[in-house]
Specification:
mainly alpha, two-stranded antiparallel sheet, 4 helices, globular
């Protein structure tokens, strides 16, 4: 049996964790549900924007959109933070 890589161990630990994860962006704290508590609608997400919106929920998504520094260029950084908090290595963009 081969040893798990640190990235795999980290993702596995996050998935096993039953509590939400928080991260900071633009001095705002965002909270992401534990991986196994993410909405099932995420399985049907057609694009990265929809996936991030579903992970965050409506209120946090509106908070992100309303911030003056939320730009197209900023979204890639934000999406990676959301993906990492949700137990993924990155958003894949």
């Amino acid at each position: 049996m081969t040893a798990a890589t640190p990235a795999t161990e980290s993702a596995a630990k996050k998935e096993a964790k039953d509590s939400p994860t928080t991260f900071e962006h633009h001095d705002i704290t965002f909270t992401v549900p534990a991986p196994l508590k993410l909405p099932v609608a995420l399985l049907e997400a057609q694009d990265e924007v929809e996936a991030v919106r579903l992970i965050l929920g409506a209120a946090q998504w509106k908070t992100y959109l309303a911030h003056e520094d939320s730009t197209l260029g900023d979204f890639a950084v934000f999406a990676d933070k959301v993906a990492q908090a949700a137990g993924q290595a990155d958003s894949g963009n």
